[in-house]
Fold:
Amino acid sequence: MINFVAIVYQKIAKPIFFKFDAEDVHIFMLNLGEAMGNIAPVRLLTSMLFANKPPILSQKVAGLNFKSPLGLAAGFDYEAKLPRFLPSLGFGFTTIGTITNHSYQGNPKPRLGRLPKSKSLLVNKGFKNPGATTIIKKIATIHTSIPFGISIGQTNNGSLETISDAIADIVSTFKHFESKPLPHTHYELNISCPNLHTHLDFYQPKNSTKLLVEIQKLKLSRPVFIKLPIVLTDSEFSALLRAISPFKCVTGIIVGNLQTNRHHPTIDQQEVARFSRGNFSGLPTQARSLELISLAYKQYDNRFIIIGCGGVFSATDAYNKIAAGASLIQLITGLIYQGPQLVSQINHDLPKILHHHGFSRIADAVGSAN
Ligand SMILES: Cc1cc2nc3c(=O)[nH]c(=O)nc-3n(C[C@H](O)[C@H](O)[C@H](O)COP(=O)(O)O)c2cc1C
Structure:
């Protein structure tokens, strides 16, 4: 059945979707996913087809139970529409956001584009989102069987001028989400969005330290994962890890965000010429994300739980990230190019790869390639 859905998606649905504006299709999919999630028989039927989660994939990470290591990355569900439906597709966790203190209508269009030859999406949203207050009301009513995180970043509406402003803004958003009993299970702190107006930069260790000093003071009730850039050199990335590691409030890192290099060898130059602004997901992120997962695992061993993100299109791609040091995996672009069955397909194929390498539990494979 999974293979049948893959063929229908590749041959019929995707060619139709790709005729329409990418952002319009995205919004349509979010609304469809929300509607399907609200109908119990639809959830049940979808689960029967897709929600295979073999026990070998189960693990407890950061005190949370994950039946599958695969989660939706930040940026797809910025209005909290999907947590109810995603377990039926086989997802083990999901992310809402990135959410900011104040709402933002998004950067000027085009905010989203397709580069099929490069297996990539152009992203120029700049944290389009309805703001913390609206999302808090929405998530108060969410019921889902999987862990879900809130990704928090700095407001991008032009109101922030200094690093201190950005820190106050981010801290205020965390306080909002902590101020009520809400069902989210963890946070992402996104310091790596390359599509912002402000150039208030937390890549510099002195700035990330200042931010984390304030976040540590909040004594947050849930684990925090920091979403890191993949566009730093090895030594810049190590310096950032060194700055982050003393802070107990940081449970883990997500490696990582978008590719900013338009001339990256995986990017087809004719495709990219259609877009003047924005950054790149999918294949252009894959190799560097893998290198940096490995670097972080080797340098810090068990200090950070690592979530691997960037260019996962298959069970082999997911396994490579796990063997490099990732306990969990996030994805977006693979779903767009491979189809909505991808997570179920990986849940089905990954156990075979684990067995082949002699592992009977996913947790034993983490970091095994180093
Ligand atoms: C449409 C889109 C929007 C995104 N928005 C965000 C965002 O708001 N916050 C964030 O941390 N990452 C964002 N990202 C980056 C993804 O979370 C992820 O790091 C990146 O796309 C690499 O994963 P992928 O190759 O599986 O897509 C976005 C990516 C896409 C494709």
Summary: Residues 2-365 form a domain with the TIM Barrel fold (CATH 3.20.20.70). Residues 73-75, 98, 112, 121, 123, 125, 127, 151, 190, 193, 227, 257-258, 281-282, 285, 309-312, 331-334 surround flavin mononucleotide (CB under 6 Å). The chain has a mean pLDDT of 95.
